[in-house]
From TrEMBL:
Protein name: Unannotated protein
Domain Rieske: 31-125
Taxonomic classification: unclassified sequences, metagenomes, ecological metagenomes
Keyword list, A-Z: 2Fe-2S, Disulfide bond, Iron, Iron-sulfur, Metal-binding
Keyword Iron-sulfur attributed: yes
A molecular function GO annotation: metal ion binding
Naturally occurring in which organism (per UniProt): freshwater metagenome
CC cofactor: [2Fe-2S] cluster
Any single Gene Ontology cellular-component annotation: membrane
Length: 126
C-alpha cells in the first residue's frame, strides 16, 4: 500500500467513527395524553394526536385504545353520540368498541387506530 492509499484508509475509518456516532437515531419521547389516575375505566375523551389531528381515547377493563376523529369517508370530524362516533357530514357511524368498524353510512373502512399505552402514571401515544 502506498502512502496515498494508507491515508485514504485512515480517513475512511476516521469518518466512520466520527459520523457513525452522529447518525444514531434519537427516539422520540411518547406524547402524554392524560394521567391514568384522572381517567378511570369507562372514560373517554377527545385529545389532539401527535400529528395535530383530533382523536378519541377510551379506557375499558381490557385497556386503552384510541382512534383518529377524522372520518374515513371524506375527512369530516366525527363526534360521540351514545356509544358510537358519528360523522355529521353524511351520517357515517363507527363503533369504537369494535375496532372502529363502520356501522352505518358511506364510509368503507374503520376509523384509523392510534397506538396508545399506559406508561407509569400516564396514558401515552406511542
Ligand atoms: S365525511 Fe363522514 S360520512 Fe362522509
Amino acid at each position: 500500500m502506498n502512502r496515498r492509499g494508507f491515508l485514504r484508509g485512515i480517513s475512511v475509518v476516521a469518518g466512520a467513527l466520527l459520523f457513525g456516532r452522529t447518525q444514531t437515531a434519537i427516539a422520540a419521547s411518547p406524547k402524554k395524553i392524560v394521567k391514568v389516575s384522572k381517567f378511570p375505566i369507562g372514560s373517554n375523551t377527545q385529545f389532539v394526536a401527535a400529528n395535530g389531528a383530533p382523536a378519541f381515547l377510551f379506557r375499558t377493563k381490557s385497556g386503552v385504545f384510541a382512534y383518529s376523529a377524522i372520518c374515513t369517508h371524506l375527512g369530516c370530524t366525527v363526534a360521540p353520540l351514545g356509544k358510537k362516533l358519528v360523522c355529521p357530514c353524511h351520517g357515517g357511524s363507527f363503533d369504537p368498541f369494535k375496532s372502529g368498524k363502520v356501522v352505518a353510512g358511506p364510509p368503507k373502512r374503520p376509523l384509523d387506530k392510534i397506538k396508545v399505552s399506559i406508561q407509569k402514571d400516564w396514558i401515552v401515544q406511542a
